[in-house]
Amino acid sequence: MKNYNEFFIGNEWVKPSSxxxxxxxxxxxxxxxxxxPEAKEADMDLAVSAARDAFDNGPWPKMSATERAExxxxxxxxxxxxxxxxxxxxxxxxxxxxxFSLGGQAFAPIMVLDYYIELAKTFPFEEMxxxxxxxxxxFREPVxxxxxxxxxxxxxxxIMSKLAPALLAGCSAIVKPAPETPINAFLLAELVAQTDIxxxxxxxxxxxxxxxxxxxSHAGIDKxxxxxxxxxxxxxxxxxxxxxxxxxxxxGGKSAAIILEDADLxxxxxxxxxxxxxxxxxxxxxxxxxxxxxxxxxxxxxxLAEAVSNMVVGNPMEVTTQIGPLFAxxxxxxxxxxxxxxxxxxxxxxxxxxxxxxxxxxxxxxPTVFANVNNxxxxxxxxxxxxxxxVIPYQDEADAIKIANQSDYGLSGSVWTQDIDRGVEIxxxxxxxxxxxxxxxxxxxxxxxxxxxxxxxxxxGPEGLQVFLEYKTVNLPA
Length: 478
Hints:
Layout: E1 7-9, E2 12-14, E3 21-26, E4 31-37, H1 41-56, H2 65-81, H3 83-94, H4 98-119, E5 126-130, E6 135-142, E7 145-149, H5 155-169, E8 172-176, H6 183-192, E9 202-204, H7 209-216, E10 223-227, H8 230-242, E11 246-250, E12 255-259, H9 265-277, E13 287-293, H10 297-309, H11 329-345, E14 348-351, E15 368-371, H12 378-381, E16 388-394, H13 397-405, E17 409-410, E18 413-416, H14 420-429, E19 436-437, E20 451-452, E21 455-456, H15 461-466, E22 469-475
Parallel strand pairs: 7-8, 7-10, 8-9, 10-11, 12-13, 12-18, 13-16, 15-16, 18-19
Antiparallel strand pairs: 1-2, 3-4, 5-6, 6-22, 11-21, 14-15, 17-20
């Protein structure tokens, strides 16, 4: 894998201000596969200056949405030509199974970009209204220079879910990828350099937490869009609040999949697993709480345990692999800590719970099912971010809804039933931002985000564009 020695700032490759570097470790082999420069405050100052100049003095915010979309289309075509390389790169960086990477890590970002390219044709950036007294013109204008701070789990997808709408809005951006997974972002930079997107509109440089905080609090940044942990999000929100800086936060989840008594288990169980264990369980929207009726609880536990025990764990580059390694040794330690906590709390392991035999290298954890779980347990309330699910019994539908809502989070969820109208009625009562009946889905043309501590604002859909816009009202003469 290619090493990089410079940052992408102002459409140029710029030497870093220090010799410090970030190592990229393959979580399957535990071997360093690449390194990149680590940004410092001086590098962030340079990137903000380039973005500021591009926004304040450059053509990008003054171009029509259609003109910006044409430049974005160039980037989309280049991404399509590199999709397989991007998928393999992300799998090597953080261990996601290649079958997931091809769709979720490579093509999903392209789908998001293409959605906003198409939206340029219809979105009302200008609107005439009849006010109470006079006619009014409402303009939707770019918010300015934005800091896009993204995580390691679906790195290019989270970049594009922010960058695509920010570009369409007319903003300029500093992309701050996670220090563990920077290579896919540098690949993106190489492609951006081949488009007609003006200099300074997109700047890419990875950094640690301290320098990321410096970027968030920088006076030249007008808005922050962050995806990551709720703990980090609360700190970013506090900084933005102190500076009256716009921000949107896409944070954690502990989503519940409610299995109703009428569900066909032979169909439901296999279809629950991808939403519960996707990306090795390292996804904020994973359905990690399985709510099962008390009347059929043990049968559901047994069927889940059997299905999970048969999942293929191994080399993430092999297409048959369903569960790869966790992205870092510290994440495996964290997950093992939660498994210990679950046992101490009185839950029992129906399957998994250890390190898989025969895999001496790699930060693996067996896909794990906890039974006899009370919703008040830490393993039911806290985001584990690994291949661990808990099965919680409920008495009736009202109890299931109550348990689903007894969480600090409200990001996703699902209900499994043969009665679709009944499923919709339950969906209306669960306080969560996205919901699916008999499946797990993310619609890129619809808003994604959460209630409660799952975040502020929405990404994707027209709503994902609106968070990068300011509204201006111009009152016209009668």
